[in-house]
Amino acid sequence: MSKKIKVGVVGYGTVGRGTVQTLISNATEIKRKTGLDVVVAGVADLHITDKNDLYLEQVPLRTTCADELIANPDIDIIIELIGGTGAAFDIISKALKNGKHVVTANKALLAMRGTELMALAHSMHFNLMFEASVGGGIPVLSVLQNDLAANHILKIEGIVNGTCNYILTRMEREKLPFETILADAQKLGYAEADPSGDVEGYDSVYKMIILAYLAYGKWVDVKDVERVGITQIGLAQIEAAHVAGQRIKLIGSVEKQGDDIFIAVKPKAVPLESVLADVSGVFNGIEIVGDKVGSLFLQGQGAGSLATASAVCADILKIAGTLK
Ligand code: HSE
Questions:
Q1: pLDDT (tens digit per residue) in 269-315
Q2: Catalytic residue among 6, 107, 207, 249
Q3: 0.85 exceeded by pTM
Q4: Is residue 207 annotated as part of the catalytic site, yes or no?
Q5: Ligand 1: which atom is nearest the Cα of residue 190?
Q6: Which domains does the chain have, with CATH numbers?
Q7: Tens digits of per-residue pLDDT, 202-224?
Q8: What separation in Å is there between the alpha carbon of 196 and the centre of ligand 1?
Q9: Phi/psi class of residue 68: alpha, beta or left (left: φ > 0; alpha: ψ in -120 to 50)?
């Protein structure tokens, strides 16, 4: 019988719920494909007593205190899904120092303190993995890090915020006001707790910084990124673009010139016949150009509970595969 790999999930919000659901409901599929028994040993959430569903009921340890999971010697991997840059930093640091591998979806924290956290993971000889931090369910980090490892990356460009793309798509198709659609994006679990991070472009900035790190091994400072969000985009502008054969998208780009890395996030009118124009709703689409592979394009659900959980589980299974 294979060893059970035990995970502790910190944060039972949109992605935490999706992750627990996926690990429990697809346990047989996971076992068949990987030979792994991955068990959710505990869930910590400040409001755990308000949460209840048929998956959470099956988790033996439910607590308000993340430290209970971090201190538990049976738990192999801590999954940080509370977001933000305060408590999340402490949880990840403590977990690594306490001999746990860590999986996170926390793009803001990585973009701001990735240098420290990666150094800590490296010095402790534990993994810190973050596939779900960029592109929701799209395995873009794995592609950059593993499959394109033999390439010099010449360019990365694309749509990396599901909320903004969902808003722009529905504004164009349904002529609804920005605020109405943003409220729907919040209800659907696409937007961040504070959605200004999405619509002002910060969320895309963090994600482009992570992509640049994987492509070039350097963390670009948030303040060095050119950033314009979508809050100034109105129906008239969307309509004018359409008449001109274009569609407005929030586009992130990374380019390397010599030793300098340039990242920008801003709305752009792209030709209607381009692949980026066809990326609609909550979907993300990312073009990567490598010197050997040429151009490739990845597209998939960029936000939402289960799509993002798929990426969290991919990291869990990679780590678990080294522990069995
Ligand atoms: N708020 C993010 C988005 C969630 O809309 O893309 C996924 O990172």
A1: 999 999 999 999 999 999 999 999 999 999 999 999 999 999 999 99
A2: 207
A3: yes
A4: yes
A5: 5
A6: 4-136+305-323 (3.40.50.720), 141-301 (3.30.360.10)
A7: 999 999 999 999 999 999 999 99
A8: 12
A9: alpha
